[in-house]
Amino acid sequence: MAHVARTLGLAAAAAAALTLTLSACSNQNANTAASAGAHGFAASWGTAGPGMPSLTIAPDGSFNGTDGCNSLIGKGTISGQTFHFGHFATTLMACPDVDTWLSRASTATISGTTLTVKDADGTRIGTLDAR
Q1: Full domain range(s) for residue 6
Q2: Which pTM was predicted?
Q3: Which is a Pfam family this sequence falls into (predicted)?
């Protein structure tokens, strides 16, 4: 009987340790998600359609989209409440009657459901609403 109680005690301790380990992992994932969610950059922005700028930013900072004519692809970083586009690749097609402002993106911030994009001089060049 003492052997059964000891075995049950060890099983209960192992189960408790496993529960604590899983709980810690779950809390770490929740904290990571909450941190990323606080920035909110990982989303689709703009209006998908011919001549319309749109951008999708992944949780790891990679992004792709279009300035309404040219395709954009790259990987940015988040610093505080600012997304930094860094270097990115873009096609260079001639686009009559399309404002290709998004291809000059340097940084972005969020206010509500709007992504405000600035150029390298810090001048606001456009906005994209969340989709």
Answers
A1: 1-39
A2: 0.69
A3: META
